[in-house]
Amino acid sequence: MRIGVEQLVRALGGWQATAVPLVDALEGALREAVLDGRLAVGSALPAERRLADGLGVSRGTVVAALTRLRDTGWVRTRHGSASTVQLPPSSAERFAPPSADGSAGSIDLRRAVPAAPRADYLAATARAARRAGPALAQGGHSGAGLPELREAIAGRYTREGLPTRAEQILVTSGARAALALLAARLRPRVAAVENPTYPRAAAVLRGAGARLSGLRVTTEGWDEDQLHAAFAAARGGLAYLVPDFQNPTGALMDARTRQAVAASAAEHGVTVVADETLRDLHLSGPAPLPPRIPRAVLVGSASKTVWAGVRVGWIRSPGTGLIGELLHHPLCEPLSAAPMEQLVAVELLAALEPLLDRRRAELRVQRDHLAGRLADDARWRFTVPEGGLVLWLRLHGVRADTVTARAGAAGLHLAPGPAFAVDGALTHYLRVPYTPPVATLDRIAGILDEACSPPAR
After folding, report:
1. What domains sit in the chain, N to C, each tagged with a CATH number?
2. pLDDT by residue (tens digit) across 310-346?
3. What are the C-alpha distances in Å from 365 to residues 124, 142, 189, 390, 396?
4. What number is the average pLDDT over the span 425-434?
5. Which residues pair with 316 in a beta bridge?
6. Which residue range or ranges hold the HTH gntR-type domain (predicted)?
7. What are the C-alpha distances in Å from 281 to residues 72, 101, 276, 320?
């Protein structure tokens, strides 16, 4: 299949909007476009001169980028024919996408996201396609979700000690879609949220018209005084919490605090929405996680455990009444997951545990390596989290925006504390994901060392 110049330009997007050299940026953009499906494997690229004209760069830039991609197995060229894109064997299993592992030149850790487990995902897609006939014969909308996917999700909750029926599950196109649907239905005037919190979730709640009432959480846990005050302010509304390896602090809510959350929610008539996107990334041994918050509405997805490209999330309600109300909301259908994506999710959930075991083992090594590189340094402090994807650093003597600016100039892009703050504070905090491989973590530690050092006189 030959791809046109205009189509390729669209697939690459804003690849020149970086501080890295053009050759590095073009090489990385082509690789990312192949990995996330914007360029189909086997696509024939335009001739070098036409490609250079379409991208607005010199032919030398295009030749240099394609040469690198040939050398690393991403492009194949036969004499007398066009160059075609392909996946090299080295890309088959990886946790971090090229934008985060340094292979694209700069290291972008502003999002802590995994790359797809290629072999598992392609096998699940093939199995789903083979039995897609009944779903394809329908109108394209699956209501609360495909019955077999709702059963699979309910079964996981039940096996974890939370008895659940399929009727308590509603499938969405991701965890944020689940939160958006809940916010649209509950219409909270005030929403209690952790401070810091996941900024995209905060944006969803603000977009629904809610004012945010923050409650402090650190790597050591939740401030119960602020928790009760935030729940009182959100009376009759909603609370959005991440009790398991909270993003970005990595904190794990203990059982006593979960009971306090349930009691405060009951006292003030607050609906607790617990985001469990990171719950499966438990890295510190076989000890079970604390029981879930009683009567909480649970939100989950496959974005962190499998891949953000699996656009499937879900809501687990304590009863069936809320699910029925959500089904009748006008946003339910637009926020639902496509039937084929749901079929792929069914296949992935059926074989999830071996995949999770591999990912936990890799993340455990990477967490411990980065923590070891950053330990015993007076310029910051942190707590090694029991799970999740990031370290939350408290910087000493320098602001996070200063560090992120210096690190960015050296090719490392990080999110500073204020990006996660409800009130714009947390100016001395920095989120550092440990999703890249060990060699890249060494590079990250080196850049942080330079970025946090006083400038030479």
Report:
1. 5-91 (1.10.10.10), 121-350 (3.40.640.10), 354-451 (3.90.1150.10)
2. 899 999 999 999 999 999 999 999 999 999 999 999 9
3. 27, 40, 43, 13, 27
4. 94
5. 169, 298
6. 20-88
7. 32, 20, 10, 28
